[in-house]
Design goal:
- The protein folds into two domains: about 5-135, Response regulator (Rossmann fold); about 145-205, Orthogonal Bundle (Arc Repressor Mutant, subunit A), CATH 1.10.10.
- The chain has helices at about 15-25, 35-45, 65-75, 90-95, 105-110, 110-125, 145-155, 160-165, 170-185, 190-200, and strands spanning about 5-10, 30-35, 50-55, 80-85, 100-105, 130.
- It is built from ten helices and six strands.
- The protein has about 210 residues and is of the alpha/beta class.
- Helix 2 (about 35-45) runs parallel beside helix 3 (about 65-75) and helix 8 crosses helix 9.
- Strand 3, helix 3 (about 65-75) and strand 4 (about 80-85) form a beta-alpha-beta unit.
Amino acid sequence: MGATKIIFADNVEKYRKVILEELLPYGIVSIGEAANGADLLRLLILLKPDVVLLDLEMPVMDGNEALNEIMIKFPGTKVIIVSMHYEQLLVEDYIFRGAKGYIPKDEIAGDIGLLARAIKKVKEGEIFVHHLPLEKQEGSIKYSFKQKQITPLICQGYTNEQISEELSIGVRGVEKHRSKLYSKVGGKAIDFYRYAFSKGLHFLGRARRRT
């Protein structure tokens, strides 16, 4: 069996080089590197990797935008999100939207074998999500379905009226769910936005309806 071919998109070149070098003993080789999503898309026109490693926090085009474009233009591409951000809502969102894996960078730091296993499993057609132990998820909030729907829109600055129109629910209902979200992290809008940005929730995709 030949080597597993990957492309790594991350804006920190030194980090890319270290990770790619550590993956070599596992038979995983880089066929391309990108510093942002736009560069990644240009590479995918020319190259067919087995797996793409995708960071979220990048200039020009971040991982959120890049995943959207990949799923439209290169829908067969197998993407693993490798990010410093981790929250269950974020993980669920990216898997729902087409990513095949999600791994926190902190977990890779002490175990490159974890990333190697993820790459191999995703290449074979499986979904690989590394769930943080509960003690590492302290402070993360729990969401109702409606709260999961409105959180991306709140992070994008939508008003209650705009959220109401987008999701076809009453304005009063939006106000109630927004208030409950705020109460989970301190009670004020600033508390929620501070929490959301610390968890990377600004990288969420658009809200989705129940199907």
